[in-house]
Specification:
The chain is an alpha/beta fold. The chain is about 35% helix and about 20% strand. The chain has two domains: about 110 residues, Alpha/Beta hydrolase fold, catalytic domain (Rossmann fold, 3-Layer(aba) Sandwich), CATH 3.40.50.1820; about 55 residues, no CATH class. The protein contains eight helices and six strands, in the order H-E-H-E-H-E-H-E-H-E-H-E-H-H. The strands form two sheets. It has a four-stranded parallel beta sheet, with helices on one face. A two-stranded antiparallel ribbon has the order 3-4. The longest helix is centred in the first third of the chain and has 12 residues. The radius of gyration is 17 Å and the shape is globular.
Length: about 170
């Protein structure tokens, strides 16, 4: 939010992938009129007062954070192949970069103020079956909806040209 304010940025396009949907929802809510378009890319579409854990299996994550993450972090428990990445060099590249995530990001609810710009464009790009319920809610809420189902969850790795072409067409 500070960057938008201090740099005088307006009509910003926010793109959130996966967990990033939680982040852009909060930024769009706080930034108001500075945001021109919000794009959820196979992402969580959070509702006011809900945490990521409300959309993911909680007990298993609790146990993992306690057993392997000292109670405050969640070690990576999914790998590139879980997101439909099949090229061996891409799998290696992704797996080497996966890291822990603070567990609070799973449990802290997102409290929306309702200050998001009513004129900002809203889009949802579905690239895998795992986020279909979020895509359906987005469509029901009036978001422009797009599909790139052959790409899998990590479309920026598996089909970068197709994703880039689609994203450019949105703006």
């Amino acid at each position: 939010m500070g960057t938008l304010t201090y740099e005088g940025l307006n009509e910003v396009v926010l793109v959130g992938h996966s967990y990033g949907g939680m982040v852009i929802a909060g930024v769009a809510d706080q930034a108001g009129a500075r945001v021109g378009h919000v794009v959820y890319l196979d992402a969580f579409l959070p509702e006011d007062g809900k945490a990521l854990r409300d959309y993911a299996p909680g007990e298993v994550l609790d146990e993992m954070a306690d057993a392997r993450g000292e109670g405050w972090r969640l070690p990576s428990y999914m790998w590139a192949t879980d997101f439909d990445v099949t090229d061996p060099s891409d799998v290696t590249w992704i797996n080497e970069r996966l890291g822990d995530q603070p567990y609070k990001t799973f449990t802290q609810p997102l409290m929306l103020t309702g200050h998001a710009s009513p004129t900002a464009k809203r889009s949802y790009i579905l690239t895998g079956a795992g986020f279909a319920s979020h895509a359906n809610r987005a469509r029901q809420a009036g978001f422009a909806s797009y599909k790139l189902l052959s790409a899998g969850h990590d479309s920026m790795v598996t089909q970068p040209l197709e994703l880039t072409t689609l994203m450019i067409s949105l703006v």
